[in-house]
Amino acid sequence: MMTQPIRIGHGFDLHRLEAGRALVIGGVTFEHDRGAAGHSDGDVVYHAVTDAILGALAEPDIGQLFPDNDPQWAGADSRVFVAEADRLMRQAGYAIGNLDVTVICQKPKLGEHKHVIRRHLAVLLGCDESQVNIKGKTHEHVDALGENRAIACHAVVLIRSESAASV
Ligand code: MG
Fold it and tell me: Would you say residue 148 has pLDDT above 90?
């Protein structure tokens, strides 16, 4: 990959919500009547952020790096995926410029947990909390997201080369 001063990446993830599962969002377990179905813990924030960083690095996506038919990742704490994306980013000579995350679900409200999610990501990615933003949106009761049958997340990240002149 050619080293450029800055590179941008986008990640998107969506999980079905099903009864009898824990709902984990950005490493926070929420009180809710259902949780994200998935091979790992189904953390849409960590998955979208992982894919955003991998995208910025022009690396294979999260599903290729961590196949959902690999028993190693069954029930995995999705922190491991973010940590691996961070490792690849540093290996390529980049660090986080800033990260902007939008979580879409009808319920629950992220509320004050946004600050905790932000802190989790700043720690995982070795950056300042001011470089991370977490936004929450409902889906206006429309479609699967609005009917509390799914949760989704978009993440946009800018990474900057640590060797290039500061930008
Ligand atoms: Mg996922």
Answer: yes
Query: What are the extents of the domains in the chain?
Result: 6-164
What is the whole-number distance in angstroms between the Cα of residue 31 and the centre of ligand 1? 20
103: left (phi over 0), alpha (psi -120 to 50) or beta: beta
Burial of 46 (0-12, 13-18, 19+ CB in 10 A): buried
Given this model, what pLDDT does residue 164 score? 63
| Greatest extent of the chain over all pairs of C-alpha atoms, in Å | 51
Instruction: Give the whole-angstrom CA distance, residue 128 versus residue 41.
Output: 26
Report the separation in Å between the CA atom of 149 and the middle of ligand 1, taken as the mean of its atom positions: 15
CA distances from 137 to 110, 146, 161 (A): 9, 10, 32
Give per-residue pLDDT as tens, 89-120: 999 999 999 999 999 999 999 999 999 999 99
66, burial (CB in 10 Å: exposed 0-12, middle 13-18, buried 19+): buried
State in Å: Cα 96 to ligand 1 middle: 21
pTM above 0.90, yes or no: yes
CATH architecture of the domain with range 6-164: 2-Layer Sandwich (3.30)
